[in-house]
Write a structure and sequence with these properties.
Elements (H helix, E strand, L loop, with lengths): L2 H10 L2 H4 L7 E2 L1 E4 L3 E2 L3 E2 L10 E3 L7 E8 L13 E10 L7 E4 L13 E10 L19 H7 L7 E7 L10
Parallel strand pairs: 1-10, 4-10
Antiparallel strand pairs: 2-3, 2-5, 6-7, 6-9, 7-8, 9-10
């Protein structure tokens, strides 16, 4: 896919400027089991429950950060929990996620009933060097995360690659207590 489509889609869906200052130039390839590919499309919570395979153009000698974000919590109309962190892996060598440090384990779509469609976006940042995140409790506290602030704190600049899908509640979403 042409890189301009990534920027156009991120802007058309208001991910830029709501969560990011600039759109990525390249596309992250995200494929869920059953060959369900993320391509600025709609997927169901059941389709995105398992962790996907992810790849992107990367220099194997460089470090990268991958994040998955829901900016629409609890709903797109009233995003008072913006953003929800769904996945964060830092210090990834090239695009081999197994080499990275998982800060927040993968969580698929789980939009509550009646909250409408949520955008879930993936972004990749090139790291200027290793990121030390010891002491951050992002696994337990995923609400009100800011990918913009995280990138600023770790001098990541703008994302180099991205993709997103939309999903909304369906009966496969577990009830929240």
């Amino acid at each position: 896919m042409a890189s301009s489509n990534v920027a156009q889609n991120f802007t058309a869906e208001s991910i830029v400027p709501e969560s990011l200052d600039a759109a990525p130039d390249d596309q992250v390839t995200v494929v869920y089991p059953g060959n369900k590919t993320v391509l600025f499309n709609k997927l169901t919570p059941a389709e995105v429950r398992p962790q996907p395979e992810v790849s992107f153009n990367a220099d194997p000698s460089q470090l990268y950060t991958l994040a998955m974000i829901d900016p629409d919590a609890p709903s797109r109309a009233t995003p008072t929990f913006r953003e929800i962190l769904h996945w964060l892996v830092v210090n990834v060598k090239g695009d081999d996620l197994s080499t990275g440090q998982t800060i927040a384990t993968y969580r698929g779509s789980g939009a509550p009933k009646g909250t409408g469609s949520h955008r879930y976006f993936f972004v990749v940042f090139h790291q200027p060097g290793p990121i030390a995140v010891a002491g951050n409790d992002l696994e337990a506290n995923r609400r009100n995360f800011s990918i913009r602030q995280f990138a600023l704190e770790h001098q990541l600049g703008n994302p180099i690659a991205g993709n997103f899908f939309q999903a909304e509640w369906d009966p496969s979403v577990p009830e929240r207590r």
